[in-house]
From TrEMBL:
MF terms (GO), sorted A to Z: FAD binding; monooxygenase activity
Residue ranges constituting the FAD-binding domain according to the UniProt record: 11-372
Pfam families given in the database record: FAD_binding_3 (PF01494)
Sorted UniProt keywords: FAD, Flavoprotein, Monooxygenase, Oxidoreductase
Family that this chain belongs to: Belongs to the paxM FAD-dependent monooxygenase family.
The protein's name in its UniProt record: FAD-binding domain-containing protein
Alphabetical list of InterPro entries matching this protein: FAD-bd (IPR002938), FAD-dep_Monooxygenase_BioMet (IPR050493), FAD/NAD-bd_sf (IPR036188)
SUPFAM superfamilies per the UniProt record, alphabetical: FAD-linked reductases, C-terminal domain (SSF54373), FAD/NAD(P)-binding domain (SSF51905)
PANTHER family: MONOOXYGENASE (PTHR13789), PUTATIVE (AFU_ORTHOLOGUE AFUA_6G14510)-RELATED (PTHR13789:SF309)
Length: 440
């Protein structure tokens, strides 16, 4: 079968309208012969959440997609020094460390901070409303290598597609359909988060202009301006998750909390932090959950895969969840368009679809697994010290801060380069002067 008349669009069903799902939809819709349908469990896409950061990797990918309005200063905040994170001492307020950009040359790629709802809205503006189906909670999914996928929703409706992309976050229904035994674990960290208007903080003496993390003996405190004149503070406590009486065990995500908890926790801290907690009008709880281990595979029935938190619930560590989700979405798009270029005259075969999912997995899973390994080691170490009631000495704290977070490999990761390396490993990339990947 050849010729344009034989070509019917490839149907991609995306479950979840978060950062991952929307980015995937925007990317895939660039292909004239891919039809995208989004299914979202929420009844409306409203403003919830607090602050979210995008690193150079996620920002670069959104720029590649032409999403200037989702990365510029009208929606995001970049500190005047363009230092992504400054660490200060909890008591003295001295700068004791920082993370720096290592190989970032373009202003728009400097780490940016948003209210999550503003980033979400900026992406949503690029997705036609009529391809989004709300109140569609996925409850089961089946994938057949030859026939495609069948999705079942809580309202007892059914949908079919050629490919299923699970972008449904931490408690993914798609993941649950294919890997039912995944257990999410509370790390013991419960964040107290707030977002309010920057004007509330305007009169605080010596308030740093840049995003700042104050490190203390048993907890930290984060404060930053966000885009659109918003300001965020994040405090919290570490409990022993194995203790049945652990503080805040069982609180839910985005649950309203008493602001007194924040004020009492930071009462002995330096005057800037003290002033910040005093002007914070209200807080919400954000308990931290992650997957106990990484998934054995991301390819299900040769037709379904996962992106974003659904694939690698890492609990938001290193503020990289948003960028990872964006890069996953883009890697998926690169993989699909590799087997199904815009010039294709036939829909990809089941073998080609499987190949695309494998290319995606080979590009992203090792990166995500490395992150999960790092996160689990950190959670175990923290759990042991919290259980033992031991704290770092001041010198240890200063030494740790001086080293910084050592996460350039995450924040400056280049997903296109990683995809090309996958193709090279698989001997699918024919080097040309333009560096254009060859067809299979
Ligand atoms: C409402 C909300 C607020 C958030 N606020 C913050 C924040 O303030 N700071 C931060 O760092 N991170 C926040 N996160 C998490 C952050 O967005 C993700 O960690 C990261 O961006 C990865 O995005 P994701 O698209 O993989 O997952 P998510 O952003 O979690 O999106 C998943 C989407 O899938 C939908 N969904 C879930 N289950 C099903 C199902 N069975 N059927 C259909 N749809 C389903 C969810 O409603 C959601 O819209 C928030 C997530 C949500 C959903």
């Amino acid at each position: 079968m050849t010729g344009e008349s034989d070509l019917t669009p490839l149907q991609v069903a995306i479950v979840g309208c978060g950062i991952a799902g929307l980015t995937a939809a925007i990317a895939l819709r660039q292909h004239p012969m891919i039809n995208v349908t989004l299914y979202e469990k929420a009844a409306e896409l409203k403003e919830i959440g607090a602050s979210i950061a995008l690193g150079p990797n996620g920002l670069r990918t959104l720029q590649r997609l032409g999403l200037h309005s989702a990365i510029d200063d009208n929606v995001a905040f970049r500190g005047p020094s363009n230092i992504p994170m400054i660490y200060r001492h909890w008591k003295t307020n001295e700068v004791i460390g920082m993370d720096v950009h290592e190989n970032v040359n373009e202003y728009l790629h400097y780490t940016a901070r948003y209210h999550r709802a503003h980033l979400h809205q900026a992406l949503l503006e690029n997705v036609p409303r009529d391809i989004i189906h709300l109140k569609k909670k996925l409850v089961s999914a089946k994938a057949n290598p030859n026939d495609g996928v069948v999705l079942e929703f809580q309202d007892e409706t059914i949908a079919t597609a050629d490919i299923l992309l699970g972008a449904d976050g931490l408690r993914s229904g798609v993941r649950g359909a294919f890997v039912p035994d995944v257990v999410l674990k509370w790390s013991g960290w419960t964040a107290f988060r707030a977002v309010f208007d920057t004007s509330l903080a305007a009169s605080i003496p010596n308030l740093p202009e840049d995003s700042t993390h104050w490190w203390g003996p048993d907890t930290n405190f984060f404060a930053s301006r966000l885009g659109k004149n918003a300001f965020t503070v994040v405090g919290g406590i570490h409990s022993n998750p194995d203790d049945p009486d652990a503080a805040y065990k069982g609180v839910s995500w985005d649950q309203e909390a008493n602001v007194k908890l924040l004020r009492e926790k930071y009462t002995d801290w330096n005057p800037v932090v003290k002033s910040l907690v005093d002007i914070t009008p209200s807080i919400r709880f954000f308990p931290n959950f992650s997957c106990g281990s990484s998934l054995p595979t991301w390819v299900f029935g040769s037709r379904a895969t996962l992106i974003g938190d659904a694939a690698h619930a890492h609990g938001g560590a290193f503020a990289t969840g948003g960028s990872l989700a964006i890069d996953d979405a883009y890697a998926f798009y690169l993989s699909i368009t590799f087997v199904f270029p815009v010039t294709a005259t036939q829909k990809p075969s089941p073998t080609e679809i499987q190949k695309a999912l494998e290319l995606y997995e080979a590009t992203r899973k090792p990166h995500a697994d490395r992150l999960l390994k790092t996160v689990h080691a950190a959670i175990q170490a923290k759990r042991a010290t919290v259980a033992a009631g031991t704290f770092e000495t001041d010198q240890e704290l200063r030494e740790r801060a001086a080293k910084g977070s050592n996460t350039t490999w995450l924040h400056e990761h280049d997903v296109v380069k990683a995809f090309e390396e996958t193709l090279r490993r698989e001997r699918l990339l024919v080097e040309s002067s333009e560096g254009i990947p060859a067809k299979l």
